[in-house]
Amino acid sequence: MKRSIRRGPLLIGVLVLTFMALAACENLLGEDDTEDDQDAVKTATLAHPGWAEGIAFGKVAEAVLESEMNYEIALTELGPEDGLAAVADGTQDAFLDVWSVANASAVEDNSGSITELGTLYQNTRTGLAVPQYVYDEGVQAISDLESGSTPDDMSSTITGISSGAGIVQITENDIIPAYGLDDAGYSVEYNTVSDMTDKLSSAISASEYIVVTIWRPHWIWAQHDLQFLEEDQSTTHYGTEDIHVYGRTGLSDDDPELAQFLANMTFSDNQLNQLLLEIEESSDDPAAVATQWTSDNSAVVDSWIPN
C-alpha cells in the first residue's frame, strides 16, 4: 500500500508566504504613492502690478515658491483693479502690492470674494526730501523752505515728477499754498521719474542743494542718504500706508501652505529698498536678480517658509 502524502501543512506554508509577499508589495507601493504625493509639483497663479516694488514682490515670491516649496508659478502683471477682480473671480490665487489707502476702493469693490493675507511692507511715505547734507544745514521741515533757513544758493524749484502724479498734485494744491511757498517763489518742475532721480543724483554728486518729491519704498533711498522734510503744521497732507497681499476667499483652506507663505512674506525698509536698487542697477532680468536676492537673504526667506 502506498503511503499518503500530507499536503496540509505545506499548503498552509505556501499561502502564508504568498500573503506576506503581497503585503510587502502593497507596503512598498503605498510608500511610493506617499513619496509621489510629497514630490508632486503644486501650481499657483499670482499677479502683481507693473510698479517697481510690485515686480520685486512677484519675482521674489516666484523664486522662493519654485525653488524652495516645489510650486510651479504662473505670474501675471495686472493693475490693482484688474488684479483684485481676477482674485475675486478665482482666475488668480493672490495679488501682491495692494496699497491700503490708494487701492481701498478696489478692495471694497471685491470684498467678500477676497481676503487680506498679510502685510508685505509697512509705512510707505510720500513727501518732499532733501539730501542729508542739506538737512544737516538746517532744512529739516517744509516751513524752513519759506522761513529763510535755506542756504542762499538753494533753488526755489521743487524737482518733481509728472503733473498728474498724486504727490505732485498735493505739493502744488496743498503744500505750496499752505506753507506760503508760492509767495517765496517756489514751483514744481515736472520730470519723468527717471529724470527726477538723475537730477537728484547729479546734485548730490556736486554737493548742490535740491528738494524733490519722493516716496518710499524706492531704490533711491538705498543709493543716497536722504531725509524727508517734516510737515510741521497741524494738518498732514502727505500720507502713509501699508502694502498688503490679498488672496481669493478659500485659499487658506485649499492651499494652506501657499496662504501661510504669503502671510509670512514681509520686507523691512532696508531690505526692500536694497532689492529695488539691485534690480534698477542690474542688466539682468528682474527674475534673476530676485533669485540672487533670495540666496543672499536666506535667513529672511527661511522665516517666510511654513514649517
Describe this structure in words.
The chain has 307 residues and is of the alpha/beta class. 47% of the residues lie in helices and 20% in strands.
Summarize the structure.
With 307 residues, the protein is of the alpha/beta class. The protein is 47% helix and 20% strand.
Secondary structure topology:
Layout: H1 8-39, E1 42-48, H2 52-68, E2 71-77, H3 80-88, E3 94-99, H4 104-109, E4 114-131, H5 132-136, E5 157-159, H6 166-178, E6 187-189, H7 193-205, E7 211-216, H8 220-223, E8 226-228, E9 240-248, H9 251-254, H10 256-264, H11 269-281, H12 286-296, H13 298-304
Helix pairs in contact: 2-12
Structural class: alpha/beta
End-to-end separation in angstroms reads 76 Å
Contiguous uncertain segments of 5+ residues: 1-5, 10-16
Largest sheet: 9 strands, mixed
Q: How many DSSP-defined strands?
A: 9
Count of helical regions: 13
Overall pLDDT confidence: 90
Mass-distribution shape: elongated
Radius of gyration equals 30 Å
- Beta fraction: 15-25%
Order of helices and strands: HEHEHEHEHEHEHEHEEHHHHH
Task: Please estimate the helix content.
Answer: 40-55%
Keywords:
307 residues, nine-stranded mixed beta sheet, elongated, single chain, alpha/beta, 20% strand, 13 helices
